[in-house]
What does this fold into?
Amino acid sequence: MIRIANAQGFWGDSLEAPLEQLRGGPIDYLTLDYLAEVTMSILQKQYARDPKTGYARDFPQMIERGAKEIVERGVKVVANAGGVNPEACADAVAAALARAGYAGRLKLGVVTGDNILPRLDELLAQGVELRNLDTGAPLSDVRDRVKSANVYLGAFPIAEALDAGAQIVVTGRCSDVALSLGPSIHEFRWAQNDWDKLAAGIVGGHVIECGAQASGGNCQADWESIPDLANIGYPILEAEPDGRFAITKHPGTGGRVNVAGVKEQLVYEIGDPCAYITPDAIADFTTIQLRQAGADRVQFWGIQGRAATEFYKVSISYSAGFKAVGSMTYGWPDAYKKAKAADAILRTRLQKLGLHFDAIHSEYVGANACHGDLLSGQPSPNLAEVTLRVGVRGNDQAAVDRFTRELAPLALNGPPVVTYPSGGRPKVEEIIAYWPALIPKTEVQARVSVRQA
Amino acid sequence: MKKQLREIAHARSGDKGDCANIGLIALQPEHYPILVQQVTPERVKEHFRELCKAKVERFELPNLYALNFLLYEALDGGGTVSLRTDAQGKTLSAALLRMEIEV
It folds into this structure.
C-alpha cells in the first residue's frame, strides 16, 4: 500500500496544507495541482515577458519550507507546477533545495511536451484542425488571438520519471488525476492496458484532486456538524496494488471523510459517469463501490475501466474582448427597489452615450445574485442592504472603460442611501476564453528528463 | 406530502466551460427512486429556465444513489467570460435543492 497525499486543489489553495500533509503523519507521495485553465494563459503572458518565469512560484517556495521532511523522509513530490516552463520550475526547485541545505541530495524529473503553442501553425498546416469541442468551429477562426495551447498529458510520463529515480517530478499540463495515478503506475507496475486498475487510480485521483473538497470542505451534507474546519486535514489516498483504495486524512486534523462527502466529490465536475475520459483510460463511475470503513475512512472497490481514446484533449486559450464589473450598495429601506432604480438609470445613461456591449448583466447581491430572480423569489422590502453589481462585456475596450466611469456618479446623482465601495472604479479586464479541442495522440510526444538537483 | 428536495438530497455543482454540472445525491437509499422519478431533465430545465439557455441532460449513478445533470449554456459563457457572481455554477447545486417534490 502507498499513501498519496494531495495538498493543493488549485493555485491559490492553502499554503500550509503541503507542510501539514508532510508533517501530520506517514505519506509516500505528495501531489499538488496548480493549473486551472485560466492559469496557463497568465503563465504564458509572464513567460513572454521573462523566459525565466511561466511556472507556479508557490511551488519552489513550498519545497524550500518542506525540504527537511521531503529529503530526510524520502517523500516523493509530484506537481504540475511547471506551467508553460517546467525546466525553469525545476531550476527554481533545485535552487530552493540548495537554499534549504539539501543541494545534490535527490533527483528531479521534468515532464514536457504538453506545450504545443510553438507548433500550432505547423499542426494546422498538416490538417490538424483543432476544432472547438463545443461549437465545432475550426481553430483558424481565432488563431491570431491564441495565448496558450497545452495538451493534457497522461500519467505514464510521470511514472517514467519516477522509474528513473526522480524524487520530485515537475510537469506542465497533464490531467489532474495523472499526478496521483503516476505514482501508482510506478509503484505497482500497472500496464498501459490494465484498464480496471487504471480506472481505479483515476477515480482515486478524482476524489483527491480538489484537495479538502474530499475531506469536509464545501460539503453540503450536514455541514454544520463537520468538526474543526479551521484545522481541516487534506485527503490521503491509500492505494493498493490490485486497484482497491481508501480515502482518509491524518489523525488529529479537522474535517470529515465520510461516504456522503466523498460522493459529493465523485459527482463534482463530471459528465457522463459511464465515460470519465482521461488520456490513460476511461473510468466507469457507475461501477464504483464504496463504504465507510472506520472513522474518516472510506473504502473503494470494484471499479471498472476500458481503453483510452486515440486523442488527447487540448486546452487552448485566446483573447475574447474585454469586461468590467462594478457595484454600488443600497441600504434599508427598500434597498432592492433603489438598486433596481439605479440599474435602470445606469442603463439609460449607457444608451445615451451610445455605448454598445455584447452583454450587460445586472445582479442584486443579497437578493438574487446566485440563483436568479425566478428561484430566489420577490426580495423583502426590509432587506438590510442590496448590492447592485453590473458587468459589461464587449470587443470595444474604450466602451468598457467608459462604463467604469458611470457607476460612481450614481452615489450623488441617483437613488438615496447608497455607498460606493472603496478601491476606486472597476478595472477593465481582458477576457481570456477557452477553446477545448482534441489532437491525435500520434501528434504529441511527451518528454521525460531526470537530473541531479 | 410536498417537500423541498433539500430534505432528502444533497448536491455539489461545478463547471466545464459554459456547461454546469449538478450532482444530486439521495441522503437515504430509499429516496433514490423518488429522485429518478421526479427530478427529470425536463423538470430541471423548467426549474433553471432563467439561467440555462440550452438543454439539460441527466445521467444515473444507482451505485451512489445519485443523478448527474448537465446544464448546457448555463453560465453566461463560462468561467472567464461570464459576468455572473457565480460564474462557475458553484451555487447551482443549492438552487436545485429548492425544487419541490412529492414524498
Notes: Chain A has two domains: 2-114+152-309, 316-435.
